[in-house]
Amino acid sequence: MVLGLALCSAVAGAQTNFPSQPIKVIVPFPPAGGTDVLTRLVANEVTLKDNKWTFIVDNKPGAGGNIGLDAVAKAKKDGYTVGTGQTANLAINPTLYTKVPFDALKDFAPVVLLASQPLVLVVRADSPIKSVADLKSQSEKKQLGMASAGTGTVGHVGGEMFARRAGIKVMHVPYKGAGPATTDLLGGQTDIYFATPPSVISMIKAGKLRAVAVTSLKRIDVLPNVPTVAESGYPGFVAEDWKAVVAPVDTPPEAIAKINQAMNTALARPEVVARLKDEGSVARGGTPAELGAFLKSEHTRWGAAVRESGAKLD
User: Which of 63, 136, 160, 226 could form a disulfide with 211 if both were Cys (CB 3.0 to 4.6 A apart)?
Assistant: First the structure.
C-alpha cells in the first residue's frame, strides 16, 4: 500500500513539473512545407517566451503523412512526443488508403487545433473564367482539367467536392506538388486549380493567376476582394486545410493540458496572428475536447468526399 502511494505521488509530481525535458514534435512531412513551417512557428514562439519549454521538431515524411503519424501513435505515452497532423492524414487518408497503420480517431489524443486555411480556386489571368458562375458555364462547353498537388490532397478532394456540389464534371490531373501543378496551369495544360494560398498568392499579386473564389465561409484578409464559394451560389460550402497537434492516446491529461495552454497562448499573440494572416491562414486554438469533436466531424465529412470521388491509394 505504501509502495502504491509512493508511485502515485511520483507520477503526480512528474506531471506537476512537466515539462522537465525537451518535447519532440514529429512533423510527417519534409522541412519547409506548410505543416513544418507552422509547427516551427508555434514551437519557437512558446520556447522563446518561456524558457521552461524546449521543442525539437523531427521530420518523418512519407506515405502522405502516414509514416510520421504512425510514429506518434506508437510513441511513449508520457507527453514528451506529439505530432502535427492535418486534414490529409487525419481525415482523408483513413478512407483514401487501402491500409493505414493507425486509427485516426482511436490512436491519438487531441491536443490543440493550430490553424486553418481555405483553398483558392485559381485560373490563368487570360482565362474566360472570372467567377464561379463562369466556371460552371465553361464546364458546359468542355470538360475542365483540374490540377492538384497530388491524388488525395485537400486540393484534389476539395475540388471534387465542389464539382459534385456544382453538378459539373472535371478531369483530375494530379501532379507531384504545388510547383508543377501551378506551372502547367500557367502553361495551359489545365484549366483550374484549387490551391493553398501560400503556393499561389505571389502569382496572383503578380497578375499571372486570377483568384476566382476561396473555400472558407468568410473571405480571407490576404485576398479581401475574392469572394467565397459559399457566397457565389453554394451556401455552406467549406473545404479547409487545417493542422492540429495530437499525442499518443492515453497520454496524461495534465501534460496535454499544459501543452494546450502554452500553444494557445502563442497562437493568440498578435505577431503570430499577423504572420498567419499574411499567408492566408487563421490562427485557431481551443481545448482538446473541441479538437476531438472537430476531428470526428472532419473524419466523417472528408471520408464521404473520398468515397464519392472514387480515389484510392495502396
Answer: 226
- d(CA 166, CA 230) in angstroms, rounded, equals 11
Report DSSP letters for the chain, one per residue: -HHHHHHHHHHHHHHHT--SS-EEEEESS-TTSHHHHHHHHHHHHHHHH-TT--EEEEE---GGGHHHHHHHHTS-SSSSEEEEEEIIIIIIHHHHBS--SS-TTTSEEEEEEEEEEE-EEEEETT-S--SHHHHHHHHTTSPEEEEESSTTSHHHHHHHHHHHHHT--EEEEE-SSHHHHHHHHHTTS-SEEEE-HHHHHHHHHTTSEEEEEESSSS--TTSTTSPBSGGGT-TT---EEEEEEEEETT--HHHHHHHHHHHHHHHTSHHHHHHHHHTT-EE----HHHHHHHHHHHHHHHHHHHHHHT--B-
- Residues contacting 290, CB < 8 A, separation 6+: 113
Global pTM? 0.88
Contacts of 173 (CB under 8 A, 6+ apart): 145, 146, 147, 148, 184, 189, 190
Contact partners, residue 260, CB within 8 Å, separation at least 6: 111, 112, 287, 288
Measure the CA–CA gap between 136 and 140, rounded to whole angstroms. Answer: 7
